[in-house]
Structures are given as structure tokens and as C-alpha cells.
Amino acid sequence: MVSADSKAGVPRHVAIVMDGNGRWAKKRFLPRFFGHKQGVDALVRVVQACIDREIEYLTVFAFSSENWKRPSDEVSGLMGLVLAAVSRYLARMGAMGVRIRIVGDREAVSDKLRAAWAEAETSTAHNSKLTLNVAFNYGGRWDIVQACRRAIEDGVPAAELTEAKLSEYMAMNYAPDPDLFIRTGGELRISNFMLWQTAYTEFVFSDCLWPEFGEAQLDEAIAAFRARDRRFGGVNAPGVPQEA
Ligand code: IPE
Ligand code: IPE
Ligand code: MG
């Protein structure tokens, strides 16, 4: 699904790879965990900034399907941090009008975390200011495979498995494709984030480490997005008629 930009060049859907927490901590001679902790605060800040800018969807990469490769103390630290963040910020997110959705494979996470996710989703389901998709134990390849599997289970005939049909089975089928992708931390890669949905997304890479990301950096990314000429394979030139 290609999303039409909403009001005056504001992206409807922003997707962020929140990278650089570890390096932020390292620079301060702190354990990596402290970087992740600061990262949660950055996320709360950015959620508010998105609401203020009337962005409708924000998808953040919080834990990838490959992040299990990290040392077990970092993984368990992250799981604990997520639980703590839900109990600390859920009410506030609800009051801000945020609808929370978790995307990713929930099988591998603990019962406690699964229950916290369910609570976060049900208690904010009625909100409509901003949809916050938290990609957790998520991988773009996982998403495509789970979509294919479910389509097969539903008995969709091969001839009917179009791009539009498969999109219906993707984890974020309720959201338009992201208009703007931001990766902090300076790496120039997608790291298995939203592979299917970013076909025509505009990419902005920032050297800013995620814990330091805020309104100013978001505005910089939006300004870069606004300066792009989105053609979706067509031709944007005066006098050239556009096909639907
Ligand atoms: C991103 O920060 C957070 C997660 C992957 C959970 P990193 O932990 O990858 O930070 P760097 O890239 O090592 O600095
Ligand atoms: C991507 O960052 C995943 C998240 C931000 C959750 P990584 O730090 O895991 O990515 P690589 O290993 O540098 O590609
Ligand atoms: Mg990283």
C-alpha cells in the first residue's frame, strides 16, 4: 500500500531503527544497559514529538530477530527494561492518545512479557491520535514468511496471491507503508527491518545516537523527507499526466 503524504509534507508513517544505545553508553564508560535505559526516554520524547506533528503511525525497531545473538545478560536486561517501561509509561501513553501495537514473533518471549504486551494493546486499543508499532522479536523476513504461511493456511490459491493479497497478511496490515525511514547510530543498513513495506519509503540516516535523538533531529529528518521527489516509478514533471 503506497501512502499518500498527509498534510503539507508531513509523513503519515515514520519508521525508526533506534540504533546506537550501546555506543552512547560506551562513550560514557557505562554498561550498555544504561544506553538502552536512556533509549526508552528518547522513545517517549519522540512519541510526543510525532503527536505534535500529527504523524499518524510510528513504528520503532526495539528488538530484532537477530538480537538474540547478544550476550544473555544484555538480552535479559532488555527484557526486564521493556517490562519496566510498560509499567512506568503505559498510563502516560494512554493519556497521550497512543494506540500501542506489538509486531513480531511473540512465541519466544516470556509469559510475563506476552501478558504485558497484551495489556498494552488492549488498554490503548480505543486511542487514535498515534499508532505506535513496537517491533519486538521482529524481522522483515519473518514478517514475509509468516504472511505466506497464513495465506497458505487460509487456502489462498496461488493465482490469487497478489501483492495486495499478501499485504493483507503482513503484520502491519492496518497501517500504510512508511513514508519516512530513519536510522540513528550512523550505520547505513536496514538490518532486517520492514523489508516488504519499505519498497518506496524515503531513507534518512543520522549519526545521532538514539538516546540523544529528539525533536530537532526528527525535524531534520522530516525536512530531508520534504525535499525528496517521490516518483513511485513515475515521472514528476509539470505537464506530465500521472496515471493512477
Ligand atoms: C539499539 O542499540 C538497541 C537494540 C538493538 C536493542 P544497540 O544496542 O544496537 O547500540 P549499538 O549499535 O551497539 O551502539
Ligand atoms: C537493529 O540494530 C535492531 C534494532 C535497533 C532493534 P542492530 O544494532 O541490531 O543492527 P546491526 O547488528 O548493527 O546490523
Ligand atoms: Mg546497534
From TrEMBL:
The GO terms describing molecular function are: ditrans,polycis-undecaprenyl-diphosphate synthase [(2E,6E)-farnesyl-diphosphate specific] activity; magnesium ion binding
Q: Which gene encodes it?
A: uppS
Q: Which organism is the protein's source?
A: Roseateles aquatilis
Would you tell me the protein name for this molecule? Isoprenyl transferase
Q: Required cofactors, per record?
A: Mg(2+)
Q: Among its keywords, does the record have Magnesium?
A: yes
**To which protein family does this belong?**
Belongs to the UPP synthase family.
> Transmembrane stretches, by residue range?
none
SUPFAM superfamilies, A to Z: Undecaprenyl diphosphate synthase
